[in-house]
Amino acid sequence: HGFTLIIPAVFTIICMILSFYFLALALKNLPLGTAYAIWTGIGTIGTCIFGVILFKEPVSALKFVCIGLIITCITGLKLITN
């Protein structure tokens, strides 16, 4: 329905504002490339989880493996920036 439903639209806008706020906080301690990679990875994982929970998207072992790889890469990026 896009942004035609008020509650989901307001929720989305609030989440976007919070997301950019937390990215700005991360940029105080992390290089831009690392912070952006982590930010997009977390967004991807969140989108997958919401898709499964809210829209009943199919869950497969391969999806869990891919999400695990994203988490591993995010952790690796954080570790090598210290």
Automatic annotation (TrEMBL):
One of its GO terms (cellular component) is plasma membrane. Gene3D superfamilies: 1.10.3730.20. InterPro entries: EmrE-like (IPR037185), Small_drug/metabolite_transptr (IPR000390), Small_multidrug_res (IPR045324). It is found in: Cell membrane. The chain crosses the membrane at residues 6-27, 34-55, 61-80. Signal peptide: none annotated. Belongs to the drug/metabolite transporter (DMT) superfamily. Small multidrug resistance (SMR) (TC 2.A.7.1) family. This is Multidrug efflux SMR transporter.
